[in-house]
Design brief:
The chain is α/β, with parallel strands linked by helices and 589 residues long. 46% of the residues lie in helices and 20% in strands. Strands 13, 14, 15, 16, 17, 18, 19, 20 and 21 form a nine-stranded mixed β-sheet that branches. It comes from Sulfurospirillum barnesii (strain ATCC 700032 / DSM 10660 / SES-3).
Length: 589
Amino acid sequence: MTECAIKSLKESCKNLKILYVEDDKVAQQYTHSLLRDFFEHMDVVSTGECAYDLFVDAKITIPSLDAPTHEFSYDLVIVDLKLPKMSGLSLIAKMRKICKETAIIVTSAFSEEEYFLESIRLGVNGYVLKPLDFDKFLETLHRSVEAIMLKKAHETYVYQLKQTLELHENALQEQSYNDMLTKLPNKKSLEEHLTRLLPLDIPSLLLIQMDHFHHYMKLYGTQVCYSIVQTFAKALYAHAHKQGYLAFQISPHEFALLDVKPYIDSEKVYEDITQLLRVLDDYEMMVETVAKKVLVRITIGVTFDQENIFQKAYTALDFAKEMGKKFVVYTNNLDETSSLNNDFYWQEVIADTLDNDDLVPFFQPIVNAKGEVIKYEALMRLKAKDEQGEDVYVSPASFLDLSKRTKQYDALSYKMIEKVVEKMFAYPNVIFSINLSERDILNKNIRYFLRQKLSEFKAKHGCITLMFEILESESGMNVEMIRHFLNEIRYEYAPIAIDDFGTGYSNFAQLLHLSPTHLKIDGSLIRYMDSDEKVCQLVQGIVSFAHSLHVETIAEYVHNENIFKQLSAMGVDGFQGYFVGEPSMELVC
Protein backbone atom coordinates (compact mmCIF):
# COMPACT_ATOMS: atom_id res chain seq x y z
CA MET A 1 0.00 0.00 0.00
CA THR A 2 1.16 3.52 -0.67
CA GLU A 3 1.97 5.86 2.16
CA CYS A 4 -1.08 7.93 1.30
CA ALA A 5 -3.32 4.87 1.42
CA ILE A 6 -1.87 3.84 4.79
CA LYS A 7 -2.48 7.34 6.14
CA SER A 8 -6.10 7.20 4.94
CA LEU A 9 -6.52 3.77 6.52
CA LYS A 10 -5.20 5.07 9.85
CA GLU A 11 -7.71 7.92 9.73
CA SER A 12 -10.56 5.46 9.14
CA CYS A 13 -9.40 3.16 11.95
CA LYS A 14 -8.92 5.93 14.50
CA ASN A 15 -12.48 5.82 15.92
CA LEU A 16 -13.04 2.09 15.55
CA LYS A 17 -12.82 -0.31 18.48
CA ILE A 18 -10.98 -3.61 18.03
CA LEU A 19 -10.74 -6.86 19.99
CA TYR A 20 -7.49 -8.80 19.29
CA VAL A 21 -7.26 -12.43 20.40
CA GLU A 22 -3.86 -14.21 20.26
CA ASP A 23 -2.28 -16.70 22.69
CA ASP A 24 1.23 -16.67 21.18
CA LYS A 25 3.02 -13.91 23.12
CA VAL A 26 5.58 -13.20 20.40
CA ALA A 27 2.94 -12.98 17.66
CA GLN A 28 0.71 -10.98 20.00
CA GLN A 29 3.37 -8.38 20.75
CA TYR A 30 4.37 -8.07 17.09
CA THR A 31 0.81 -7.69 15.77
CA HIS A 32 -0.16 -5.41 18.66
CA SER A 33 2.69 -3.07 17.80
CA LEU A 34 1.38 -2.89 14.22
CA LEU A 35 -2.24 -2.35 15.20
CA ARG A 36 -1.41 0.26 17.79
CA ASP A 37 -0.48 2.67 15.00
CA PHE A 38 -3.95 2.30 13.48
CA PHE A 39 -6.42 1.88 16.39
CA GLU A 40 -6.82 4.08 19.46
CA HIS A 41 -9.35 1.73 21.11
CA MET A 42 -8.05 -1.83 21.34
CA ASP A 43 -8.52 -4.71 23.80
CA VAL A 44 -6.00 -7.56 23.72
CA VAL A 45 -6.63 -11.00 25.27
CA SER A 46 -4.97 -14.43 25.06
CA THR A 47 -7.89 -16.88 25.36
CA GLY A 48 -11.22 -17.46 23.66
CA GLU A 49 -13.01 -17.47 27.00
CA CYS A 50 -11.76 -14.00 27.93
CA ALA A 51 -12.55 -12.71 24.44
CA TYR A 52 -16.08 -14.08 24.59
CA ASP A 53 -16.71 -12.55 28.04
CA LEU A 54 -15.59 -9.13 26.78
CA PHE A 55 -17.76 -9.50 23.69
CA VAL A 56 -20.83 -10.46 25.73
CA ASP A 57 -20.33 -7.76 28.36
CA ALA A 58 -19.93 -5.08 25.73
CA LYS A 59 -22.99 -3.12 24.78
CA ILE A 60 -23.89 -4.52 21.37
CA THR A 61 -26.06 -2.25 19.25
CA ILE A 62 -27.77 -4.27 16.54
CA PRO A 63 -28.24 -2.19 13.39
CA SER A 64 -31.82 -0.98 13.17
CA LEU A 65 -33.85 2.01 12.19
CA ASP A 66 -33.84 3.39 15.72
CA ALA A 67 -30.39 5.00 15.67
CA PRO A 68 -27.11 4.84 13.74
CA THR A 69 -24.62 2.37 15.23
CA HIS A 70 -21.60 4.67 15.59
CA GLU A 71 -21.03 3.44 19.14
CA PHE A 72 -20.73 -0.24 18.23
CA SER A 73 -18.74 -1.83 21.06
CA TYR A 74 -16.45 -3.83 18.81
CA ASP A 75 -16.26 -2.87 15.18
CA LEU A 76 -13.59 -5.44 14.40
CA VAL A 77 -12.34 -8.68 15.94
CA ILE A 78 -8.97 -10.17 14.91
CA VAL A 79 -8.68 -13.72 16.18
CA ASP A 80 -6.17 -16.55 15.86
CA LEU A 81 -7.70 -19.94 15.06
CA LYS A 82 -5.39 -21.93 17.32
CA LEU A 83 -6.36 -20.97 20.86
CA PRO A 84 -6.22 -23.08 24.06
CA LYS A 85 -9.51 -24.67 25.24
CA MET A 86 -11.94 -22.64 23.08
CA SER A 87 -10.69 -22.59 19.50
CA GLY A 88 -10.88 -19.55 17.28
CA LEU A 89 -13.61 -21.10 15.15
CA SER A 90 -15.68 -21.94 18.28
CA LEU A 91 -15.24 -18.38 19.51
CA ILE A 92 -16.37 -16.95 16.17
CA ALA A 93 -19.40 -19.27 16.10
CA LYS A 94 -20.47 -18.10 19.58
CA MET A 95 -19.91 -14.46 18.68
CA ARG A 96 -22.01 -14.83 15.54
CA LYS A 97 -24.94 -16.05 17.65
CA ILE A 98 -24.84 -12.73 19.49
CA CYS A 99 -24.10 -10.43 16.58
CA LYS A 100 -23.68 -11.15 12.89
CA GLU A 101 -22.57 -7.59 12.09
CA THR A 102 -19.14 -7.35 13.72
CA ALA A 103 -16.30 -7.61 11.19
CA ILE A 104 -13.88 -10.50 11.87
CA ILE A 105 -10.38 -11.18 10.50
CA VAL A 106 -8.86 -14.63 11.09
CA THR A 107 -5.09 -15.19 11.50
CA SER A 108 -3.80 -18.75 11.27
CA ALA A 109 -0.75 -20.84 10.56
CA PHE A 110 -3.06 -23.42 8.96
CA SER A 111 -3.83 -23.32 5.29
CA GLU A 112 -6.02 -26.42 5.21
CA GLU A 113 -9.16 -26.11 3.14
CA GLU A 114 -11.51 -27.16 5.96
CA TYR A 115 -10.44 -24.22 8.16
CA PHE A 116 -10.83 -21.84 5.27
CA LEU A 117 -14.29 -23.12 4.33
CA GLU A 118 -15.53 -23.08 7.93
CA SER A 119 -14.31 -19.50 8.29
CA ILE A 120 -16.28 -18.51 5.21
CA ARG A 121 -19.37 -20.26 6.55
CA LEU A 122 -19.10 -18.26 9.76
CA GLY A 123 -18.99 -15.02 7.77
CA VAL A 124 -15.46 -13.79 8.45
CA ASN A 125 -14.32 -10.75 6.51
CA GLY A 126 -10.68 -11.75 5.94
CA TYR A 127 -8.22 -14.64 6.33
CA VAL A 128 -4.49 -13.94 6.91
CA LEU A 129 -1.82 -16.64 7.16
CA LYS A 130 1.00 -16.57 9.69
CA PRO A 131 3.63 -15.43 9.82
CA LEU A 132 1.93 -12.16 8.90
CA ASP A 133 2.92 -10.50 5.68
CA PHE A 134 2.62 -6.80 6.51
CA ASP A 135 1.37 -5.69 3.10
CA LYS A 136 -1.15 -8.51 2.77
CA PHE A 137 -2.34 -7.89 6.31
CA LEU A 138 -2.87 -4.19 5.54
CA GLU A 139 -4.79 -5.07 2.37
CA THR A 140 -7.09 -7.42 4.36
CA LEU A 141 -7.46 -4.78 7.07
CA HIS A 142 -8.25 -2.14 4.43
CA ARG A 143 -11.01 -4.25 2.87
CA SER A 144 -12.56 -4.99 6.27
CA VAL A 145 -12.42 -1.37 7.44
CA GLU A 146 -13.85 -0.19 4.12
CA ALA A 147 -16.80 -2.56 4.63
CA ILE A 148 -17.24 -1.29 8.19
CA MET A 149 -17.27 2.34 7.05
CA LEU A 150 -19.73 1.59 4.26
CA LYS A 151 -22.02 -0.14 6.75
CA LYS A 152 -21.83 2.83 9.13
CA ALA A 153 -22.55 5.23 6.29
CA HIS A 154 -25.53 3.10 5.30
CA GLU A 155 -26.83 3.07 8.86
CA THR A 156 -26.45 6.82 9.11
CA TYR A 157 -28.30 7.26 5.82
CA VAL A 158 -31.14 4.98 6.95
CA TYR A 159 -31.39 6.81 10.27
CA GLN A 160 -31.50 10.22 8.57
CA LEU A 161 -34.05 8.91 6.09
CA LYS A 162 -36.21 7.67 8.97
CA GLN A 163 -35.95 11.07 10.67
CA THR A 164 -37.03 12.78 7.44
CA LEU A 165 -39.98 10.39 7.07
CA GLU A 166 -41.02 11.05 10.66
CA LEU A 167 -40.97 14.80 10.03
CA HIS A 168 -43.17 14.34 6.95
CA GLU A 169 -45.51 12.01 8.86
CA ASN A 170 -45.80 14.52 11.70
CA ALA A 171 -46.57 17.25 9.20
CA LEU A 172 -49.25 15.10 7.55
CA GLN A 173 -50.63 14.18 10.98
CA GLU A 174 -50.85 17.85 11.92
CA GLN A 175 -52.64 18.61 8.66
CA SER A 176 -55.15 15.81 9.25
CA TYR A 177 -56.01 17.07 12.76
CA ASN A 178 -55.87 20.83 12.19
CA ASP A 179 -57.65 23.23 9.89
CA MET A 180 -55.22 24.45 7.24
CA LEU A 181 -56.54 28.01 7.31
CA THR A 182 -56.96 28.78 11.02
CA LYS A 183 -54.65 26.08 12.46
CA LEU A 184 -57.37 25.24 15.00
CA PRO A 185 -57.94 21.53 15.76
CA ASN A 186 -60.57 20.22 13.36
CA LYS A 187 -63.63 17.97 13.69
CA LYS A 188 -61.51 14.82 13.51
CA SER A 189 -59.51 16.06 16.49
CA LEU A 190 -62.72 16.85 18.39
CA GLU A 191 -64.07 13.37 17.66
CA GLU A 192 -60.89 11.83 19.07
CA HIS A 193 -61.25 13.89 22.25
CA LEU A 194 -64.82 12.63 22.59
CA THR A 195 -63.80 8.98 22.18
CA ARG A 196 -61.55 9.36 25.22
CA LEU A 197 -64.39 10.45 27.52
CA LEU A 198 -64.99 8.30 30.58
CA PRO A 199 -68.52 7.00 31.28
CA LEU A 200 -69.12 9.56 34.05
CA ASP A 201 -67.63 12.53 32.17
CA ILE A 202 -70.07 15.31 31.29
CA PRO A 203 -69.08 17.19 28.12
CA SER A 204 -70.16 20.79 27.69
CA LEU A 205 -70.19 21.25 23.90
CA LEU A 206 -70.93 24.69 22.49
CA LEU A 207 -71.53 24.57 18.73
CA ILE A 208 -70.99 28.04 17.28
CA GLN A 209 -72.13 29.04 13.82
CA MET A 210 -71.27 32.28 12.04
CA ASP A 211 -74.64 33.59 10.85
CA HIS A 212 -75.33 34.23 7.13
CA PHE A 213 -71.87 33.07 6.05
CA HIS A 214 -73.08 32.38 2.52
CA HIS A 215 -73.97 36.09 2.27
CA TYR A 216 -70.35 36.98 3.03
CA MET A 217 -69.24 34.61 0.27
CA LYS A 218 -71.56 36.27 -2.26
CA LEU A 219 -70.73 39.78 -1.13
CA TYR A 220 -66.97 39.63 -0.54
CA GLY A 221 -65.67 36.51 -2.26
CA THR A 222 -63.57 33.61 -1.06
CA GLN A 223 -60.35 35.40 -0.11
CA VAL A 224 -62.08 38.01 2.04
CA CYS A 225 -64.11 35.27 3.73
CA TYR A 226 -60.87 33.46 4.52
CA SER A 227 -59.66 36.59 6.28
CA ILE A 228 -62.96 36.92 8.18
CA VAL A 229 -62.76 33.32 9.37
CA GLN A 230 -59.10 33.66 10.39
CA THR A 231 -59.76 36.80 12.39
CA PHE A 232 -62.81 35.33 14.08
CA ALA A 233 -61.00 32.04 14.85
CA LYS A 234 -58.14 33.90 16.47
CA ALA A 235 -60.53 35.84 18.72
CA LEU A 236 -62.51 32.70 19.55
CA TYR A 237 -59.38 30.76 20.47
CA ALA A 238 -58.17 33.54 22.78
CA HIS A 239 -61.54 33.71 24.53
CA ALA A 240 -61.87 29.93 24.82
CA HIS A 241 -58.38 29.61 26.28
CA LYS A 242 -59.18 32.27 28.84
CA GLN A 243 -62.42 30.47 29.85
CA GLY A 244 -60.82 27.01 30.04
CA TYR A 245 -62.38 25.53 26.89
CA LEU A 246 -60.79 23.69 23.98
CA ALA A 247 -61.55 25.34 20.63
CA PHE A 248 -62.15 23.46 17.36
CA GLN A 249 -63.14 24.35 13.80
CA ILE A 250 -65.53 21.77 12.39
CA SER A 251 -66.51 23.44 9.11
CA PRO A 252 -65.60 26.66 7.28
CA HIS A 253 -68.07 28.71 9.34
CA GLU A 254 -68.69 26.47 12.38
CA PHE A 255 -66.68 26.15 15.54
CA ALA A 256 -66.99 24.21 18.78
CA LEU A 257 -65.89 24.78 22.36
CA LEU A 258 -65.48 21.76 24.65
CA ASP A 259 -65.10 21.42 28.38
CA VAL A 260 -65.29 18.09 30.23
CA LYS A 261 -66.07 17.64 33.90
CA PRO A 262 -67.65 14.92 36.09
CA TYR A 263 -70.57 17.29 36.74
CA ILE A 264 -72.40 20.25 35.24
CA ASP A 265 -71.82 23.61 36.82
CA SER A 266 -74.84 25.21 35.18
CA GLU A 267 -74.17 28.66 36.59
CA LYS A 268 -70.67 28.65 35.11
CA VAL A 269 -71.85 27.34 31.74
CA TYR A 270 -74.59 29.96 31.58
CA GLU A 271 -72.08 32.67 32.47
CA ASP A 272 -69.62 31.30 29.90
CA ILE A 273 -72.27 31.40 27.17
CA THR A 274 -73.32 34.91 28.15
CA GLN A 275 -69.70 36.08 28.13
CA LEU A 276 -69.07 34.39 24.78
CA LEU A 277 -72.01 36.21 23.23
CA ARG A 278 -70.90 39.47 24.80
CA VAL A 279 -67.44 39.16 23.24
CA LEU A 280 -68.07 37.48 19.88
CA ASP A 281 -71.65 38.24 18.89
CA ASP A 282 -71.88 41.43 16.82
CA TYR A 283 -68.10 41.12 16.50
CA GLU A 284 -66.62 43.93 14.40
CA MET A 285 -63.44 43.45 12.39
CA MET A 286 -61.47 45.30 9.76
CA VAL A 287 -60.55 43.28 6.66
CA GLU A 288 -58.23 44.37 3.87
CA THR A 289 -59.96 45.32 0.60
CA VAL A 290 -63.22 45.94 2.49
CA ALA A 291 -63.91 49.62 3.02
CA LYS A 292 -66.07 49.30 6.12
CA LYS A 293 -66.06 47.08 9.19
CA VAL A 294 -67.42 43.56 8.84
CA LEU A 295 -69.96 42.58 11.49
CA VAL A 296 -70.10 38.89 12.52
CA ARG A 297 -73.05 37.48 14.42
CA ILE A 298 -73.23 33.99 15.91
CA THR A 299 -75.76 31.42 17.10
CA ILE A 300 -74.94 28.66 19.61
CA GLY A 301 -76.30 25.16 20.18
CA VAL A 302 -75.37 23.52 23.48
CA THR A 303 -75.48 19.93 24.71
CA PHE A 304 -74.21 18.03 27.74
CA ASP A 305 -74.88 14.51 26.45
CA GLN A 306 -72.16 12.11 25.29
CA GLU A 307 -74.57 10.08 23.16
CA ASN A 308 -75.20 11.51 19.67
CA ILE A 309 -73.44 14.67 20.77
CA PHE A 310 -73.17 16.32 17.33
CA GLN A 311 -76.75 15.50 16.42
CA LYS A 312 -78.00 17.06 19.64
CA ALA A 313 -75.80 20.13 19.31
CA TYR A 314 -77.05 20.71 15.75
CA THR A 315 -80.66 20.13 16.87
CA ALA A 316 -80.22 22.83 19.51
CA LEU A 317 -78.51 25.12 16.99
CA ASP A 318 -81.26 24.68 14.39
CA PHE A 319 -83.94 25.31 16.99
CA ALA A 320 -82.17 28.47 18.14
CA LYS A 321 -82.11 29.79 14.55
CA GLU A 322 -85.76 28.90 13.96
CA MET A 323 -86.85 30.64 17.16
CA GLY A 324 -84.56 33.64 16.75
CA LYS A 325 -82.61 32.74 19.90
CA LYS A 326 -78.92 33.43 20.40
CA PHE A 327 -78.45 30.03 22.03
CA VAL A 328 -80.43 26.95 23.00
CA VAL A 329 -79.48 24.03 25.24
CA TYR A 330 -80.58 20.64 23.94
CA THR A 331 -83.45 18.80 25.65
CA ASN A 332 -85.67 15.94 24.50
CA ASN A 333 -88.56 18.37 24.04
CA LEU A 334 -87.00 21.42 22.46
CA ASP A 335 -90.38 22.65 21.24
CA GLU A 336 -91.44 23.07 24.88
CA THR A 337 -88.30 24.68 26.23
CA SER A 338 -86.80 28.10 26.26
CA SER A 339 -83.15 28.84 25.66
CA LEU A 340 -82.51 28.14 29.31
CA ASN A 341 -82.40 24.38 29.55
CA ASN A 342 -84.78 22.50 31.77
CA ASP A 343 -81.66 21.37 33.59
CA PHE A 344 -80.90 24.90 34.73
CA TYR A 345 -84.42 25.26 36.06
CA TRP A 346 -84.27 22.10 38.14
CA GLN A 347 -80.83 22.88 39.45
CA GLU A 348 -82.24 26.10 40.83
CA VAL A 349 -85.23 24.27 42.34
CA ILE A 350 -82.92 21.73 44.01
CA ALA A 351 -80.67 24.47 45.35
CA ASP A 352 -83.69 26.29 46.83
CA THR A 353 -84.96 23.02 48.29
CA LEU A 354 -81.71 22.39 50.11
CA ASP A 355 -81.45 26.01 51.29
CA ASN A 356 -85.04 26.12 52.55
CA ASP A 357 -85.17 22.55 53.90
CA ASP A 358 -87.99 21.72 51.47
CA LEU A 359 -87.07 18.09 50.93
CA VAL A 360 -89.99 16.08 52.29
CA PRO A 361 -90.07 12.29 52.77
CA PHE A 362 -93.37 10.62 51.90
CA PHE A 363 -94.18 7.19 53.29
CA GLN A 364 -96.03 4.53 51.34
CA PRO A 365 -97.39 1.58 53.34
CA ILE A 366 -96.51 -2.01 52.52
CA VAL A 367 -99.23 -4.38 53.72
CA ASN A 368 -99.66 -8.12 54.10
CA ALA A 369 -102.44 -10.21 52.55
CA LYS A 370 -104.78 -9.16 55.38
CA GLY A 371 -104.25 -5.49 54.60
CA GLU A 372 -102.18 -4.87 57.74
CA VAL A 373 -99.30 -2.41 57.46
CA ILE A 374 -96.00 -4.24 57.97
CA LYS A 375 -93.57 -1.47 56.97
CA TYR A 376 -93.25 1.84 55.10
CA GLU A 377 -91.08 2.75 52.14
CA ALA A 378 -89.68 6.27 52.35
CA LEU A 379 -90.00 8.20 49.07
CA MET A 380 -88.28 11.50 48.27
CA ARG A 381 -90.33 14.56 47.32
CA LEU A 382 -89.38 18.18 46.65
CA LYS A 383 -91.73 20.85 47.89
CA ALA A 384 -92.31 23.47 45.17
CA LYS A 385 -94.95 25.92 43.95
CA ASP A 386 -97.24 25.46 40.97
CA GLU A 387 -98.35 28.28 38.64
CA GLN A 388 -101.10 29.28 41.08
CA GLY A 389 -98.61 29.49 43.96
CA GLU A 390 -99.94 26.33 45.62
CA ASP A 391 -97.64 23.80 47.25
CA VAL A 392 -96.85 20.75 45.11
CA TYR A 393 -94.64 17.78 45.91
CA VAL A 394 -92.45 16.67 43.00
CA SER A 395 -91.29 13.06 42.58
CA PRO A 396 -87.62 12.24 41.86
CA ALA A 397 -88.37 11.32 38.23
CA SER A 398 -88.17 15.03 37.42
CA PHE A 399 -84.83 15.83 39.01
CA LEU A 400 -82.85 12.88 40.42
CA ASP A 401 -80.80 12.01 37.31
CA LEU A 402 -80.06 15.68 36.75
CA SER A 403 -78.91 16.10 40.37
CA LYS A 404 -76.14 13.55 39.76
CA ARG A 405 -74.74 15.65 36.92
CA THR A 406 -74.96 18.89 38.86
CA LYS A 407 -73.30 17.53 42.03
CA GLN A 408 -76.48 17.97 44.09
CA TYR A 409 -77.42 14.31 44.41
CA ASP A 410 -75.25 13.59 47.46
CA ALA A 411 -76.75 16.48 49.42
CA LEU A 412 -80.31 15.39 48.49
CA SER A 413 -79.67 11.78 49.43
CA TYR A 414 -78.01 12.67 52.73
CA LYS A 415 -80.91 14.98 53.67
CA MET A 416 -83.45 12.28 52.76
CA ILE A 417 -81.74 9.65 54.89
CA GLU A 418 -81.39 12.11 57.72
CA LYS A 419 -85.14 12.82 57.70
CA VAL A 420 -86.12 9.15 57.49
CA VAL A 421 -83.90 8.32 60.46
CA GLU A 422 -85.51 11.21 62.34
CA LYS A 423 -88.90 9.62 61.61
CA MET A 424 -87.60 6.25 62.77
CA PHE A 425 -86.67 7.73 66.14
CA ALA A 426 -90.17 9.21 66.40
CA TYR A 427 -91.80 5.83 65.59
CA PRO A 428 -89.41 3.20 67.02
CA ASN A 429 -91.88 0.31 66.55
CA VAL A 430 -92.38 0.95 62.83
CA ILE A 431 -90.16 -0.61 60.15
CA PHE A 432 -88.98 1.85 57.51
CA SER A 433 -87.22 1.07 54.24
CA ILE A 434 -85.02 3.47 52.32
CA ASN A 435 -83.53 3.24 48.83
CA LEU A 436 -79.74 3.12 48.54
CA SER A 437 -77.80 3.42 45.32
CA GLU A 438 -74.17 2.42 44.85
CA ARG A 439 -73.30 6.08 45.11
CA ASP A 440 -75.02 6.31 48.51
CA ILE A 441 -73.18 3.24 49.76
CA LEU A 442 -69.84 4.75 48.76
CA ASN A 443 -70.66 8.12 50.36
CA LYS A 444 -68.53 8.31 53.52
CA ASN A 445 -70.76 11.01 55.07
CA ILE A 446 -73.81 8.75 54.74
CA ARG A 447 -71.88 5.79 56.16
CA TYR A 448 -70.71 7.80 59.16
CA PHE A 449 -74.20 9.23 59.79
CA LEU A 450 -75.89 5.82 59.66
CA ARG A 451 -73.29 4.19 61.88
CA GLN A 452 -73.73 6.91 64.50
CA LYS A 453 -77.54 7.09 64.40
CA LEU A 454 -78.17 3.34 64.19
CA SER A 455 -75.88 2.76 67.15
CA GLU A 456 -77.85 5.36 69.13
CA PHE A 457 -81.16 3.77 68.11
CA LYS A 458 -80.04 0.27 69.03
CA ALA A 459 -78.70 1.42 72.38
CA LYS A 460 -82.05 3.04 73.15
CA HIS A 461 -84.48 0.47 71.71
CA GLY A 462 -82.50 -2.77 71.60
CA CYS A 463 -82.93 -3.33 67.86
CA ILE A 464 -82.89 -1.50 64.53
CA THR A 465 -86.05 -1.10 62.45
CA LEU A 466 -84.54 0.03 59.13
CA MET A 467 -84.51 -1.92 55.88
CA PHE A 468 -82.37 -1.07 52.84
CA GLU A 469 -83.70 -1.32 49.30
CA ILE A 470 -80.69 -1.71 47.03
CA LEU A 471 -80.79 -0.04 43.62
CA GLU A 472 -78.59 -1.61 40.97
CA SER A 473 -76.18 0.27 38.73
CA GLU A 474 -75.40 -0.53 35.11
CA SER A 475 -72.40 -2.59 36.21
CA GLY A 476 -74.66 -4.80 38.34
CA MET A 477 -74.82 -5.28 42.08
CA ASN A 478 -71.48 -5.24 43.91
CA VAL A 479 -72.11 -7.76 46.67
CA GLU A 480 -68.77 -7.26 48.41
CA MET A 481 -69.27 -3.50 48.46
CA ILE A 482 -72.68 -3.94 50.12
CA ARG A 483 -71.30 -6.31 52.73
CA HIS A 484 -68.46 -3.92 53.50
CA PHE A 485 -70.99 -1.10 53.87
CA LEU A 486 -73.11 -3.10 56.34
CA ASN A 487 -70.03 -4.00 58.38
CA GLU A 488 -68.89 -0.39 58.45
CA ILE A 489 -72.24 0.92 59.74
CA ARG A 490 -72.34 -2.03 62.21
CA TYR A 491 -75.60 -3.42 60.85
CA GLU A 492 -74.37 -6.71 59.39
CA TYR A 493 -77.75 -8.45 59.54
CA ALA A 494 -79.79 -5.61 58.08
CA PRO A 495 -82.87 -6.66 56.11
CA ILE A 496 -82.03 -6.15 52.43
CA ALA A 497 -84.47 -5.88 49.56
CA ILE A 498 -83.49 -6.05 45.89
CA ASP A 499 -85.53 -3.25 44.37
CA ASP A 500 -87.25 -3.31 40.97
CA PHE A 501 -86.65 -7.02 40.44
CA GLY A 502 -87.60 -8.27 36.98
CA THR A 503 -86.48 -5.19 35.08
CA GLY A 504 -83.32 -3.27 34.29
CA TYR A 505 -80.22 -5.15 35.29
CA SER A 506 -81.76 -7.52 37.84
CA ASN A 507 -81.20 -11.24 37.56
CA PHE A 508 -81.77 -14.35 39.64
CA ALA A 509 -78.05 -14.72 40.36
CA GLN A 510 -78.22 -11.68 42.64
CA LEU A 511 -80.44 -13.67 45.02
CA LEU A 512 -77.78 -16.33 45.35
CA HIS A 513 -74.84 -13.95 45.92
CA LEU A 514 -76.38 -11.25 48.12
CA SER A 515 -78.77 -13.41 50.20
CA PRO A 516 -81.38 -10.65 50.59
CA THR A 517 -84.33 -10.91 52.95
CA HIS A 518 -86.82 -9.38 50.51
CA LEU A 519 -87.37 -9.11 46.78
CA LYS A 520 -89.50 -6.34 45.32
CA ILE A 521 -91.18 -7.34 42.06
CA ASP A 522 -91.09 -4.38 39.72
CA GLY A 523 -94.29 -2.54 38.89
CA SER A 524 -93.63 -2.87 35.16
CA LEU A 525 -94.59 -6.54 35.56
CA ILE A 526 -97.39 -6.15 38.13
CA ARG A 527 -99.30 -3.54 36.12
CA TYR A 528 -99.98 -6.01 33.26
CA MET A 529 -100.92 -9.05 35.32
CA ASP A 530 -104.65 -8.71 34.75
CA SER A 531 -104.20 -8.52 30.97
CA ASP A 532 -101.21 -10.74 30.13
CA GLU A 533 -101.07 -14.40 31.14
CA LYS A 534 -97.37 -14.67 30.32
CA VAL A 535 -96.59 -11.89 32.79
CA CYS A 536 -98.57 -13.78 35.44
CA GLN A 537 -96.52 -16.89 34.81
CA LEU A 538 -93.30 -14.88 35.07
CA VAL A 539 -94.37 -13.31 38.37
CA GLN A 540 -95.38 -16.74 39.71
CA GLY A 541 -91.94 -18.05 38.75
CA ILE A 542 -90.21 -15.19 40.57
CA VAL A 543 -92.31 -15.76 43.71
CA SER A 544 -91.64 -19.52 43.71
CA PHE A 545 -87.93 -19.06 43.16
CA ALA A 546 -87.66 -16.44 45.92
CA HIS A 547 -89.59 -18.59 48.40
CA SER A 548 -87.39 -21.58 47.64
CA LEU A 549 -84.50 -19.44 48.94
CA HIS A 550 -86.57 -18.25 51.95
CA VAL A 551 -86.75 -14.73 50.52
CA GLU A 552 -89.96 -12.77 51.07
CA THR A 553 -91.59 -11.03 48.11
CA ILE A 554 -93.17 -7.59 47.86
CA ALA A 555 -95.21 -6.59 44.80
CA GLU A 556 -95.04 -2.96 43.67
CA TYR A 557 -97.71 -1.04 41.73
CA VAL A 558 -100.67 -2.96 43.13
CA HIS A 559 -103.32 -0.66 41.68
CA ASN A 560 -106.57 -2.67 41.80
CA GLU A 561 -108.34 -5.40 43.72
CA ASN A 562 -108.09 -8.01 40.98
CA ILE A 563 -104.29 -7.83 40.92
CA PHE A 564 -104.20 -7.84 44.72
CA LYS A 565 -106.16 -11.10 44.75
CA GLN A 566 -104.02 -12.68 42.04
CA LEU A 567 -100.85 -11.86 43.95
CA SER A 568 -102.33 -13.11 47.21
CA ALA A 569 -103.16 -16.43 45.55
CA MET A 570 -99.55 -16.70 44.35
CA GLY A 571 -98.30 -16.35 47.93
CA VAL A 572 -96.79 -12.86 47.65
CA ASP A 573 -95.84 -11.65 51.15
CA GLY A 574 -96.18 -7.89 50.82
CA PHE A 575 -98.17 -5.45 48.69
CA GLN A 576 -97.42 -1.85 47.77
CA GLY A 577 -99.38 0.46 45.50
CA TYR A 578 -102.22 2.95 45.35
CA PHE A 579 -104.82 0.22 45.93
CA VAL A 580 -103.41 -0.56 49.39
CA GLY A 581 -102.10 2.90 50.30
CA GLU A 582 -100.88 6.11 48.69
CA PRO A 583 -97.62 7.85 49.68
CA SER A 584 -98.21 10.42 52.39
CA MET A 585 -96.25 12.72 54.67
CA GLU A 586 -97.92 11.10 57.66
CA LEU A 587 -98.10 7.46 58.69
CA VAL A 588 -101.48 5.76 58.71
CA CYS A 589 -100.69 3.70 61.83
